[in-house]
Each structure stands twice: as C-alpha cells, then as structure tokens.
Amino acid sequence: MRKQTFLYSTLEDLDLSMTFYSNENNSSTKATLLYFHGGGLLYGTRNDLPEVYCELLVENGYNLLAVDYPLAPEVKLPTIISCLTEAIDWFLKNYQTTLGLKKPDYFLFGRSAGGFLSYLLSARHLLPEQKGLISFYGYYDLTNPSFNQPSTYYNQFPKIAPLTAQALICPKPTAEVSINERFSLYLSGRQFGNWLSYLVSTPSEKETFSLTDTELTALPPTFLAHSSADQDVPVETSRIANTKIPDVTYEEVEKLPHDFDGDITKSEGLQVYQALIVWLDKTLATS
What we know:
Elements: E1 2-11, E2 14-22, E3 31-36, H1 51-59, E4 62-67, H2 77-94, E5 106-111, H3 113-124, E6 130-136, H4 162-166, H5 179-192, H6 205-208, H7 213-217, E7 222-227, H8 236-244, E8 248-253, H9 267-286
Parallel strand pairs: 3-4, 3-5, 5-6, 6-7, 7-8
Antiparallel strand pairs: 1-2, 2-4
C-alpha cells in the first residue's frame, strides 16, 4: 500500500492536507473513499483509521483519501464545511492528473463527527460522481436532546470546569490535535451540555446544521454502522436513519463502545468492514 500526501487548501496560515492510500497501480481502482475523522470536531487527525482497514479497502480496489479539516472552536461549522467542499472539488479536479485515477467515482466516509460531516455534505453538496455515503456511529441532528444537556455517561468522570477546558483553545486555526491534548475540552462540553456552543455561533444554527426528513429521503445509497451500547452517540440516531433513508444498509454490533472498530483485537470491526466492501461492490454495480 502506498501513502502520498497532498495539500488541497490553506486557511490563514494553516495547511490543509490529505493522505492518499492506494495500490502501486491505480488503474484497477473501483472508487475512492473520501474519509473524515472523528473527535467531536474539536480534536483528531486525518490518519486515525487503523491500517488494517486501510489495507483491506485498498486490496479490494478502493482507494482512501483521508482529509484534514480545521477544528472547532477556532473555527465554526460553516468554515469546516466550506473547507471540505474544497476538498471534494480538489479531488474531482485532480483525480486523473495528480492521483492517476481513471474514474472520479467517490463515497463520503466518516466516523462519529466525520459521519456527521459526511451526512451534511451528502445532503448539501451532492454531486453526480458521489456514489454513496458511509457513516460509522455518526449523527445528523444537532438538536438531539442528548447533545444539548449534561451527559450522564460523561458525568461519571471527574468534572472539568468550562474555563479550565477553554484554556486548551488555540489562538489560530488548527487541523490536528491529539485526543490526549484536547479530549478534556469535549469531555467538559458534554458534562455541562455546552459542547455545541463550540461548533455554532448561535443556538438557531443547530437547526441549520441538522438534516430534515426531506434531506434524509434524498440521500444517496447509505451504509450505516453503530454499536447498541454506544455511550457517546445514541444508537437510536442510526436506527432512525435506517427507517428514513430509502436505500440503506445498516450493521449494528452488540455491547461495544462508541468507536467499536478502534479495537482491532475485536472481530466485529473487521466483519463490518468486510460487509462494507460487499456493499460498495453492490452499490457500484447498480449505480
């Protein structure tokens, strides 16, 4: 598997890059997955997908393009979405010349907050070349009560006062912060029920950045995965989406934490990625 890094944009002085995972010979590529990482939009890194899954996708004919995006709260959601729109447009402009691909076919793939971004972009920046949407334990509705009130789960941990957490905010935009450096900003936000204030400028914007039922019914073919025991994003999110999206495949695992595919010693993650490849092949065959 080959890894290459490309710059797709800059924001102020911040370089926004992408890592391209591919075979040495790209001519047999079926499609490319544009991948957005999780981290509550406050932390994370584009290269967080375990290598075993990257290799599995590439071996089965799917390249992976893992994309930077500027993190909140240094920027708000409109800027994040605008940068990712640029990333999609960069892919479509450069898939032949820079990446050496024959086809511009792509899927948006996100985990957790990246799933949220994939939902939004699939609803509001859907292009003919996009063949589907993949959300692992993602969400599409910022008005969900569990995001807007103190979390019972996160309040089991020692309290982190908002002012203490806010000391972690950087003076200028950043696109990569490790979980160790900034998880406490997210933790505090969920403990006090103010996490979303880091993403939007006004409370009414929570609705602006939530998909309507009409938008859900207009989504492209969708693959969802979630754990029944998710302590961070309620499993009902994907269960409800499974009833509202017309062309949907849903895999639910039992009794595992939020990011169930992060622990590669567990077989469930690999099984879901194998199911994903079957779905990808089928979706392309019928598109």
